[in-house]
Amino acid sequence: MAIHFNHLQPIDRLKYFIERQLVKGAGYQLFVIVACIAMVSIAGGLLIAPINFDGHAIGEDVWWAFLRLTDPGYLGDDQGAWRRVVSTLLTICGYVLFMGTLVAIMTRWLIAFMEKLEQGLTPVSVKQHLVVLGDTSRTVPIIHELLGNEDNRNYFKKLNKDKDLSIILLAETVNAIIHQQLLAELNMPLKLSKRLVLRSGKSIQLDALHRAACTQATAIILPSQFQRSDSPVTSDVETIKSLLSLNVLAESSGLHPRVVVELDDARHAKLARKSYQGGLSTVATDETISRLIAQCAVVPSLLKVYSHLITSSKGAQFYFKSAEPFVGMAINHIKQLHSAATLIGFIDPQTEHFALSVGDTAQHKLKQADVLVFVAQNFQQIEKILPSNKLDKVQSAVQKTTSKVSVKKSHKRLLLLGWNRRVPAIIAELDSYVKERFEVTIVSSLATEIREAEIAKLGPFSERTTIEHKAADYMVEADVKQLNPDNYDIVLLLYSDRLDSTEEADARVLVGSMVLNEVLANTQQQPHVLIELSDPSNESFLDQSGWDTFITPLIMSHILSQTALMPQSQVLFDSLMKAGGIQIRLRQLEHYSDKEMLKVDQLKLLAERQGELLIGMVKQDLSGDQVILNLENGTRVSQLANDQIIVIGNEAGIA
């Protein structure tokens, strides 16, 4: 059957021409409507011209038609049948063309213009601000840590010549709804929320980076995103591409702002440093979380201490201060001058080394580049300095001691439920504790061959660590019962990164925790349980469990924000979390004395004789363990109340 096509008729060509004009935008649409109004006005003037016997020019008739077209109020003024017919037709056309189409086009144009402004496509005109590249699970905690904490804002002002802290968030999609949702999650006062500006774009796009004024920023935070472990393109690939784009923009402007970047894999740190020629701080998620999990597995209740020190909203935290006003003075002298805060040591920025202020280090003469490290409740405490005439009186109480207490080796059984790409790093970190022996049982539905191959990539472990693989699902109660979790000292429940989203990953962990709780409910021996989640919004589900809960995005957000605000904090966290170096420990009072109760000032001296610094205590009450940092000298520590002493000391003997 033959198909015949007719040639385009003139009316079709006209319709095509009008269509092409209308799709060009509001300006062309207005032009078409104005042309239609002009033609209808001319036509109306020509229709009324033959009955005008008063000698009006054609222009007057066209104007008459235009008035009827634009204003229906003239309809009742006309006399004569033909004049009224034409006037009625013009009024109807006016409703369609002028009051309908013209107003609709202008309204749509105004709405489109406002939506375009809401998308954040206009470059910002600010300087000395912080930029967060990407809207991820880390975004809200980072902004809340920096903008929602008064001490952090004051610290930023001190470092930036009284410049108020402003944050530019570069998100892939920006509109009014997303902006309001973000402000609702932050729950900050209006005055502070105005300092948060959203810009649209990706961190790999040069124009988007320019839009956020990255080269004018004090620091740039580049957090990582959730990515499946079996994905061919990891989040580190996009991160390094973003660093390359930042470097191109920085080279073109001659300004290289400091960048704090989160990497999933620590092995990509060298490549990241090659990608950006400016100041770069790399924080590796696998290395940081594996070290923290290993430490908290060795020392129960340590996570509560870290949550206070890392999270500024929970009380005392680490603060940093330039040693320039105290050049040539000994650390011991500076410690006594700052009676309101606890001076734990100093950082040498050139060597990136943290030294604890005990023993020989306490006599170190400060240099101009040194940075003092404090534990304090707020920024004002490290600014408060005693008068110099009281120094000699207090100094006499300081003693130099180098005694060391031997640590007995212990054997622990660890049940590891679940699998993600950090498991090999966790086991490697546990193996680096030479005073500990670990018998690790890994339970997962992932094939044993794949698990063994991933663990083998980190090399052979010492004889202190043995690994056994089992295939089971921790969401099935029967499988968990067969594992006998009460026979283990530590149970570690990890989320899976082989699922599509953090919601699915955490849903499995939450169900698994309920199954584990059911199995352990009637057992006499309770293991130390640690749980890792991937979504900060699920933190409240395990608040009442009494188990240690690692919210990986929250931990990484706090470290990233603190590193952006205080670059020295990365050196400190690396030193404290690494096995075999300076670490935080929990002690009983009997470790230092056979007395049942001691004051903090007495306990400080006993701890320093063993090469440790006392920074706080964990006090047990009806509501649970209460962490108190930066204790006053008159505070009493009781053995009968089972108070635990928080100290920082050197752990000798890394493998």
From TrEMBL:
Keywords: Ion transport, Membrane, Transmembrane, Transmembrane helix, Transport. The keyword Amino-acid biosynthesis does not apply. InterPro entries: CASTOR/POLLUX/SYM8-like, CASTOR/POLLUX/SYM8_dom. Pfam families: Castor_Poll_mid. Residues 287-382 form the CASTOR/POLLUX/SYM8 ion channel conserved domain. The chain crosses the membrane at residues 30-53, 89-111. This is CASTOR/POLLUX/SYM8 ion channel conserved domain-containing protein. The lineage of its organism: Bacteria, Pseudomonadati, Pseudomonadota, Gammaproteobacteria, Alteromonadales. It comes from the Bacteria. Its main location: membrane. It is found in: Endomembrane system. Gene3D superfamilies: NAD(P)-binding Rossmann-like Domain (3.40.50.720). It is a multi-pass membrane protein.
